[in-house]
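Appendix C reproduces, verbatim, an entry submitted by the partner laboratory led by Prof. M.T., so that reviewers can inspect both the input and the predicted structure.
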Amino acid sequence: MKGDYTGKVLRMNLGTSSTGALPTERHEELGGGHGMGFAIFEDLGLKKSADLLQKRDRLG
């Protein structure tokens, strides 16, 4: 089906209201939600900090 959302990951920045699609070629070989989640976390260069409430932490 043309224009569908299968195999795509949406990246939304709520602070700037910007959106974009993340490449998923590498994620397909990881086979599952946990593997894909880790790959996205790693691809975006996110680092786990000790204090998740800090503004600089993207997960807080």
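The chain is about 20% helix and 15% strand. Additional entries are available on request from the coordinating office.
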